[in-house]
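Re: weekly structure request thread

Next one in the queue (131 aa):
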Amino acid sequence: MTSGHGGCMSTVHASYPKDSLSRLETMALMSSVELPLSALRSQISSAIDVIVQVGRVRDGSRRVTHITEVLGCDEHNQYQLQDLFVLEHGEDANKPAFVPTGVLPACLEAIRIHGHDLPAAVYAAAKRRQR
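Done, posted below.
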């Protein structure tokens, strides 16, 4: 993923986006390559832009629960994540809604460079969040 070839996609079994990164760390640490945790976290956080988390909901079906952006690591070598979309269980717990959080992704320019944009609802949520 860090070889300069964009567009990598994979699956990892984990309950939450942050757990996905921990699982990747664990798998990498099980290899014969000895790499300090700080270097491993740097590699993982630079290789992954977005995590799409799927989970089982109350009716037993699987739904996307989070779309989370990986921003890198902070000065304490902790992953910095921001949820872009989340599955919310509002007034009717049987009808969860997948909604934008109002956070615009740091990779928005890259999305646009590739000829795409975000739905208008994302910008409306960002505007509401600024108030």
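The mean pLDDT is 90. The radius of gyration is 16 Å.
Next request, please.
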